[in-house]
Specification:
The protein is an alpha/beta fold and 368 residues long. The protein contains twelve helices and 13 strands. Helix 1 crosses helix 7, helix 3 crosses helix 6 and helix 8 runs parallel beside helix 12. The mean pLDDT is 97. The structure holds pyridoxal-5'-phosphate (PLP).
């Protein structure tokens, strides 16, 4: 059996005809930038998330950068960022002119709330949380800290489309929140795309201006922005796929529950823990595995592709490692995890037989 890490064809084939109809309409109207398609998606996405504003942008990294700009974060400021996440989180902070301060993770793979206060300085302006792999962070506890230190809360929901915390969607808790619609994400475009959501009118207006050259009405440039627009064709793709996301997340949960019940007795791996107040969207199914690389290679040899998210915490990347060498002790948990993390295949349309084959091969590797 051959099992890829992700298979976009299975979900795309379901929506292909609907999307082609929408794209044809856009082509015939030459409505490629902005217009009804983008407006429509923004309204539907905000409604479904139960937030006031959605601003479509060109990708998830731009969404983070623009959010920081809208909050007025820049030169001389610090933003607390998880150490184990995609590089874009730190990159966006740097691009805005501020400095990332890296925080260790807890056993749920999310930012460790108990370690936040140690990282504060008078320059700290915001906490950027990432609902990693699809599970919400400890929102209530983080909000208490944000209030105490007067910090903004930025949620990166790039891996948490319609994940829930206490029955509310990720993206509705922070001052501002961002999404990536990179094709492999739970809600994926057919190219690059992203969005910002917020309940704050002022931030929403700033983001709208920023993504389109600071232009408030034709040729009336009121601020320095950039071109970070969401294009009409990607918006049309997302609008169609939005109707299917709940079902796709349900399928991911079903696959996850098979992994959990089949691998529960395996002492050589640690399964992902889900907090009872959370609805996990399982963008990734990440285990901690003994002999990780041997297991990965073995699975590959029997036709199963896996991933590692992420092989190195950001502060250990070449660009940061000298700067962060003296703070390694603070990052104990994420460094030890980075040697064991392994992402198993999980995608809508993956069959029960395929999931069972993966679990069987893992057990075979550990000779159970
Ligand atoms: C995918 C991702 C991004 C970046 O999104 P792009 O659309 O690729 O720019 C940012 N943060 C996290 C946590 C991601 O997973």
């Amino acid at each position: 059996m051959k099992i890829s890490f992700n298979n976009l064809n299975l979900s795309n084939s379901i929506v292909e005809n609907e999307i082609l109809t929408e794209i044809l309409k856009i082509i015939r109207e030459s409505a490629f930038i902005g217009g009804e398609s983008v407006d429509d998606f923004e309204i539907k996405f905000a409604e479904k998330l139960r937030v006031k504003h959605c601003i479509g942008v060109s990708n998830g990294t731009a969404a983070l950068w623009i959010s920081l700009k809208a909050l007025g974060i820049g030169e001389g400021d610090e933003v607390i960022v998880p150490a184990n996440t995609f590089f874009a989180c730190a990159e966006a902070v740097e691009t805005a002119g501020a400095k990332p301060v890296f925080c260790d993770n807890d056993e749920y793979f999310n930012i460790d709330v108990t370690k936040l206060e140690n990282l504060m300085s008078e320059r700290t302006k915001a906490i950027m949380v990432v609902h990693l792999y699809g599970q919400a962070c400890d929102i209530d506890e983080i909000k208490v800290i944000c209030k105490k230190y007067n910090l903004f809360l930025i949620e990166d929901c790039s891996q948490a489309h319609f994940s829930k915390y206490k029955n509310e969607y990720c993206g509705s808790f922070g001052d501002i929140a961002t999404f990536s619609f990179y094709p492999g994400k739970n809600l994926g475009a057919m190219g690059d795309a992203g969005a910002i959501v917020t309940n704050n009118d002022d931030y929403a207006e700033k983001c709208r201006l920023f993504r389109n050259h600071g232009e408030a009405g034709k040729s009336n440039h009121v601020m320095i922005g950039f071109n970070c627009r969401l294009d009409a064709i990607q918006a049309a793709v997302l609008k169609v796929k939005l109707k299917y996301i709940d079902e796709w997340n349900r399928q991911r949960n079903e696959i996850a529950s098979i992994y959990v019940s089949e691998l529960g007795s395996c002492d050589n791996i640690v399964l992902p823990k889900v907090k009872s107040k959370n609805y996990h969207s399982f963008h990734l199914f990440v285990i901690l595995a003994e002999k990780r690389y041997e297991l990965k290679n073995f699975l590959q040899s029997v036709g199963i592709s896996t991933g590692i998210h992420y092989p190195l915490p950001i502060p250990l990347m070449p660009i940061y490692k000298d700067l962060w060498a003296e703070h390694i002790e603070r990052l104990r948990m994420c460094i030890s995890y980075s040697e064991k993390l392994l992402s198993l295949p999980i995608f809508p349309g993956m069959t029960k037989e395929e999931v069972m084959y993966v679990t069987k091969m893992i057990k075979q590797f550990y000779e159970l």
